[in-house]
Amino acid sequence: MSGTITLENPLQEGSRRIEWVAEPCVVVIFGASGDLTKRKLLPALYNLADQHLLSPGFSVVGFARTEKSHEVFRDEMRESVDRFSETGPANKDVWDSFAQGLFYISADPRSAEGYAKLSDLLAQIDRERGTAGNRVFYLSTPPSLYGPIIAQLGAAGLAKPATGWTRIIIEKPFGKDLDTAVALNKEVAAVFDEEQVYRIDHYLGKETVQNIMVHRFSNGIFEPLWNRQYIDHIQITAAEAVSVEDRGGYYEEAGALRDMIQNHLLQVFTLVAMEPPVSMDSESIRDEKNKVMMAVRPIKIEEIDRVAVRGQYGAGSVGGKPVIAYRSAKGVNPESNTETYAALKLYIDNWRWADVPFYLRSGKSMPRRVSEVAIQFKRAPHMLFKGAANQLEPNVMVLRIQPDEGISLKFGAKQPGQAVRIRQVNMDFEYGTSFARKSPEAYERLLLDCMLGDATLFARRDMVERGWALITPILEYWKNTKPINPFPNYEAGTWGPREADEMMERDGRRWRRP
Amino acid sequence: MELGSENQNYSPSKVVDIKSIERELKNLWKQLTEEQEGEIKQPVTRVTVLNLIIYAPGETTYGRLNETVAELTKHHPGRVVLIVIEPDAAPTTLDAQVTAICHPTSGGRKQVCCEEVLVSAGAETVKGLPSLVDALLTPDLPTALWWRDLPRLDAPLFNRLASSSDHVILDSLYFEDPVKGLFQLDRFIKSNRHTSFSDLNWGRLTPWRSLIAAFFDVRDFNPYLFKLNDIAIEYGLGPRSDQAAPARAWLLAAWLASNLGWEFVAAARAEDHSERLLFQKGDRKIAVELRGQITDETRKGTLISVKLSADADPPAKFIVSKTEDRHRFETREEIAGVTSIGKVDRVDEFTEVYLVGAELELLGRDFHYEQALDTVAKIAAAR
Q: Which residue numbers in chain A have pLDDT < 50?
């Protein structure tokens, strides 16, 4: 995706070998004692440094309540990188250089005093490390702290300083429903301009998700088929094999519809359904994605039971290992009606997609972890091979997001022999076996894009609110009603509740086994 | 065949004509699936993303080359046609051997295999090689030629193989007279526009170019890019002081000039064998010096440091250097004589596999390389 580099640097222009280096800046991580910093953020930043993609003065300030010194923070982050970086333990020389830019502030994120300390430290870093007033504020805290932190940044004059640029990255969930999302957007807008705001959805950082656009718009053969004339329906699946484990307390407040469908799957859905953008700049792409959301048919209350399915796993086994029921997990109400599975049928009312159903589903404790987009084409209009009619299945193109990232196309081929016997075969492309280069980890890509000022892979305000506007009536309905069949309604290690199959069967279709 | 083991080569068979070679390749694929031990057969996937012709003269180099080919195919699976000219073989020698190179993937659940055809030729059968190679190439895939020898641009074999290829990979490291060699290469490339060219020596310059360019991605330093007036490129001479500046130094100087729009004015060789080049942009004169330093033999021909100075207010210097142990790059800026923050970067391991692999990723014309070559050619013509 194109960056929004504004400096003229002929030494970088047109070179396929040299990648853009981010301007020197400070990334301030609120909630730096948390898991995300250790597992994802610091390893990603270190890997960017190791790939020569960060400027010499690049710095990080960890901001959290826990008391510790700069040195202790550096040591802890070294351990995190050694443990969680996908490229293995840190190179000593690169780490020593990188660690000179790591700092820590222990403060209460709700208190103005911490922001005064932060302001002084940032000024010092600017002087000593040449970061020129460029900042990224990363909110890696519980959502309840987003509002107070944003307000304090505004009050301390850190949101729009006189020199340099400032951006803010906000982790999901961005609100719990439409009202809270709108309220949060207002709090953010009171302090930051929209072009400063980067709402992160790490699915968009995945190389294979980005490949959806390349696949559609760089190949002349697919786009003419990418419409209601040739496509019967599309299934988008994000299945997790893991159970809720020890995150019951968080998950009780979330559920599958909020946790996965409102953000990740709707983002993938818009990429699959969007019109070609007029250019590859971030706003053109995000405009097209937003137009998809504008065209999605709202779901009426009386339709919800027919087009939305919820499920909750009971005891079972996944991968041969026993799994306890969701209601028995730590932090979960034994009578919980939180859904660990959700499926949705959507229609897009525009010329391209009229009457083509999009089926979205996501669940925990499913047989395996898989995320994919399956485009099922219409059957051949006239069956020449009458004897083989029942052997023919429709063509399916599958964009596999994880694992075994790649693309496959299922089509029919004649088996050798006198009779016409047709067998389905797969034409397969896999990233892992076709390209030398390891795909960058999603957070590496997203953090660098933010530092480069490229918002293509981040969610825009309007898209977030439209996503919530679509989902919130379902959330409300589910909150106020009991499930059609009592929970749990699917066994751990199966592909979801019977109601989801029935939703498809009513349409004369069935779910793919991914 | 053991699953999960790397780089399994199968028994090669001797064949000499195309039909036989193709038949042997088909048999090889059958063999791969049938000879698996145990009841559960793992799927074998044939992957071809390109044709790779490797010209590697001399039997003595083949042993190491085998490992290089296996490593390359791990990341660039395809059909490899390996040409070996055996100087001691009978002049009418023409042998071909077919081998599969397999790599486990996906936690050992799959084997990804590609093909190697090793063609050995004697002095008299070399002429027939290009047509044999042409017939072996898999259709609809890009074809890269890796000329793993001193580039002989006027040799019929090279010309013929290059014309069958979409992309040619050479190495200007081996030019005996770097400037003359680059000049000839520039002319050759201009007269063969249907083929793109890579120079592994240019690939070795990537981190230098990257680190230099990165200075000027910084807002405060960007203006100095357009005020540079003095460039010093230091390279290792080895123990003797009369060695010519290596191709890499020339290419780096030419890259700066061509990307920044500097017009070449004059060149002179000093008594100490350093090269002094003068460029001009508007009213500004830019002096570029290629300066040798006595070093041990291992550092001969390598770049040691690049210093870029800008005559501005305040004056600035940007320096990229490699540490003595050659394991790190160090960069620093000096503004008004004060050194600001420096950075240490790891040096990537520039093995053949790494360099050739990097070129195979790019496959296609590198306009910046061609522009740099054009600048070197202008300098060569004026010297």
A: 1-5, 436
Per-residue burial over A365-381, b = 16 or more CB atoms within 10 Å of its CB, e = otherwise: bbbeebbbbbbbbeeee
Residue type at position B94: L
**What is the pLDDT, as a whole number, of residue B154?**
85
What pLDDT was estimated at residue B112?
72
Residues B17-73 have pLDDT tens digits of 666 777 777 777 777 666 555 555 555 666 677 899 999 886 555 567 888 888 888
Chain B residues touching residue A451 (CB < 8 angstroms): none
- Give which of B26, B45, B115 is closest to A428, Cα–Cα: B45
Q: Inter-chain contact B220–A404, Cβ cutoff 8 Å?
A: no
Query: Choosing among B110, B344, B367, which should be mutated to test the A contact, i.e. which has the most A CBs within 10 A?
Result: B344
Cα separation of A351 and B146, whole Å?
A: 50
Q: Closest Cα of chain A to B123: distance in Å?
A: 36
Residues A118-143 have pLDDT tens digits of 999 999 999 989 898 999 999 999 88
**Annotated catalytic, A202?**
no
Local structure of residue A348 (DSSP, 8 states): B
The shortest CB-CB distance from A93 to any of B210, B214, B344 is to B344
**Strand, helix or coil at B173?**
helix
Tell me what pLDDT residue B10 has: 47
pLDDT at residue A255 in the model: 94
* B75 and B159 housed in the same domain: yes
State whether residue B209 sits within 8 Å of chain A by CB.
yes
Q: What string of H, E and C letters represents the secondary structure of B226-237?
A: HHEEEEEEEEEE
| Set of chain A residues whose Cβ sits within 8 Å of the Cβ of B75 | 435-436
Residue B213 and residue A11: Cβ atoms within 8 Å? yes
Helices B367-382 and B178-190 cross at an angle (nearest 10°) of 120
Q: Given a cut of 50, is residue B1 above it in pLDDT?
A: no
Is residue B155 domain-shared with residue B39, that is, in the same domain? yes
A95-105: per-residue pLDDT in tens?
999 999 999 99
For B:46-65, CB contacts with A below 8 A are 47, 49
Contacts of B220 in chain A (CB under 8 A): 130, 132
Is B355 part of any domain?
A: no
A57–B341 CB contact, under 8 Å: yes
Inside any domain, residue B38: yes
For B315, the domain range is 204-349
Q: Out of A52, A233, A264, A382, which one is annotated catalytic?
A: A264
- Give me the amino acid identity at A324: I
B161 and B208 assigned to the same domain: no
**pLDDT score of A88:** 82
CATH assignment at residue B288: 3.30.360
Domain match, B225 and B322 both: yes
Nearest chain B residue (CA) to A49? B345
Both B24 and B160 in a single domain?
yes
CA A280 to each of CA A7, A61, A219, B141: distance values in angstroms, whole numbers, following the listed order: 19, 33, 16, 28
Mutation to test the B interface, candidates A6, A94, A97, A451, most B Cβ within 10 Å: A97
Domain-located, residue B56:
yes
Shared-domain flag, residues B19 and B156: yes
pTM for the full predicted model: 0.79
Residue B344 counted as domain residue: yes
